[in-house]
Sequence to fold (809 residues):
Amino acid sequence: MSRLHTADPVLDAFAKEVGTEGAVAISGAQTRWNTGGELAAGTRTITAPSGIVEYIPEEMIVTVRAGTSVAELHAELRVHGQWTALPERGGTVGGAIAVGENDYRRPARGDVRTAVLQVRYVSAEGEIVTGGGPTVKNVSGFDIPRLITGSLGTLGCIAEVLLRTNPMPSGQRWFTSADVNPFALHQMLLAPGPILWDGATTTVMLFGHDVDVEADRGRIDSLGTFTEVDAPTMPSGFRWSLPPADLQDLSALDTGVFVAEVGVGTVHAEKPQPRTPLSPAVQLIHDRMKAEFDPTGRLNPGRIVGGR
Amino acid sequence: MSLLRRAVDRVRGTDDSVRGAQDHTTDPLLDALIDALDPARVKFDDAQRSLLGKDASVFDGGNAGPICYPTSTSEVVAIMKIATQFDRAVVPRGAGTGLAGGAIPLGAPIVVAVTKMRDVIEIDEANGVAWVEPGVINLDLTRHLAPLGYHFAPDPSSQQVCTIGGNVANNSGGPHCLAYGVTNAHIQAIEVVTPAGDVVMLGGLDAEPDGYDLRGVFVGSEGTLGIATKVAVKLTKNRPAVRTLLLSFSSVRDAANTVSGVIAAGIVPAAMEVMDNAITQAVENYVNAGYPRDAAAVLLAEVDGPNEGIEIDANRIREIGLENNATDVRLAADEAERALLWKGRKTAFGAVAQIAPNYYLHDTVVPRSKLADVLDQIYAIAAKYELLIMNVFHAGDGNLHPLIVFDGRDEGILDRVHAAGAEIIEASLAAGGVLSGEHGIGVEKQAYMHLLFSDADLDHQNRLRRAFDPTCRANPGKVLPAGHSCADIQHLRSVPAGLWG
Fold:
């Protein structure tokens, strides 16, 4: 038996539940339930196993079942001063990875796609498949974890992941200003944290050692007048994905009310981003990928990845 | 026969159908390539084919077909279409510094050397990227970016010669990937010519590119999914302050424990590199960098960042070192001393040439907490096979680089080298590790993939590959072990039956 495969009755039971035929979808907390389109009628809905399997703080890795809530995971990690890149907005670990969206504090917390070191999923044929490995550095074969992350459950039913954790910076403070140029602020900071901008007000997170935060606090004062505030919450609504440079002229785009992540390019907006189809050659690879992993189209039917 | 030995044998051989090509000036495949490129950029002489039949691995070399040096995306497209027309495989190639045989041509493929595509096309500061061609050399890129205050973070030991295209193919690492991440974290978008000759943009400059993460899976795919022709690399701001510490220890175990202690303390230094006594002496003899010759192990630890906080981390690393019996802790006094220490580390593999003519470098990764135990096992394996094994490694990542140093002229030594290598891999996997941290699988570790993955796992990796390359045209015979379609010899075109045994 290969090294990554140990007998696991929980995963075996989940594989049985997924089975080998009939349309099936995994339901998490349904916070992003209609991402990629509505689930096809008549699809059987099941839940993934939950619970933290193994957390090794000194290795900065945690193995967790897909049905675990991100809040529960992060509460456990916080005890050891760590966190992951997964967004905290009420969902499950499996849901966060299936959708692949990043937290609005991404610059301080890392990318979801970089955090998934290993994934175990149940294939359309009902087999347990493992991709990746338990170490941060690993080029042993093709990068299945990156393929599965953001695949909306269309290639396999995510059962368990092994995530990279990161030490939480000792200092994390938010400041807001109504008279600063957010792009100049981004340029000035050495390792810019999250910078949120609604067209008028800029809110920035400074992070690191307390002395670094204090020093940055002094530096940003040269650009504008800042007041310390609590961590912001993101508006619900639509999510745009833009190149960071495009944020400089958001008035040209029909976003409605927005909060933009400066330096990142994500925009939380009142109106949806216009749909752009994938190029035909990229669409072809998508179609073949889906056909390879789910030849009968039984996994999460109705949900389309790409060309949204 | 050991698995590694079989891999060595597999890449040997000649292909008479191509050897004859140079004698026939009317070879239609060559004519088509010459028409598409330029006679000066299509090579098929024995010297070139022999040179590009090899990479920096221990493998003797494969069998290159015609060698093309395209200068544009459209020429790469033309090559791919000709390959399809003549039903030939295609092997992309950068500087050939790979250590796992990933660029060794199997089955007389068309070799596409991207070394003439070496322009830095654009530096786009507003989007935080530079667009470069795949033949740009890693260190040249960093030098190019320096006046603007940026660098390209991955810094493999071969960075003076290796290319960005090769870094993308291998998901390359390097000492400073501990804090900054390996190549995949530094590539925003890739223009790729698919095996069918389509030009696709994978990833994008936007925050969360749409669709499956094809960019993410392309990085590290060892040339099996297509050929990168343009790469958007992330710009990393240079850090204003850096502290480089050299810690000496009277045992390798103490050095390894210091490394896991630092990570456990929540510090992620820019780099943490360990060298044992044998390699330290070799380095000192070679470049006289100022390493202690009497230490059983040295740890080179570097923290960087804003001026204020790095003293805290540097002091904490010093404390953890002393708690783990460090016999000496030295802070590099200035940039010159720092540069010399790094020169020593980065020339370690060159330094062994004074000891023996050959070396074989392994690349497994183990959990950091298991470093000391696995190193003990590696020294025991060395003793068992009467081999000299030196250890110089990316300790912070748990990425071991046991270096078996030998003279290939010694009777029967290769069998011992490969047997010892196999045991090192076994010991690393038994400790919960993986086959390769940054060198890749290539032809070297294919036969070991079954130790890490089940048949179903490997089948799914093969499905991923087929979605890009249903006909197994791009670098066939690599990464996946035999039994998976693109690895199977019957798919290696133009190889007479039986040649590969």
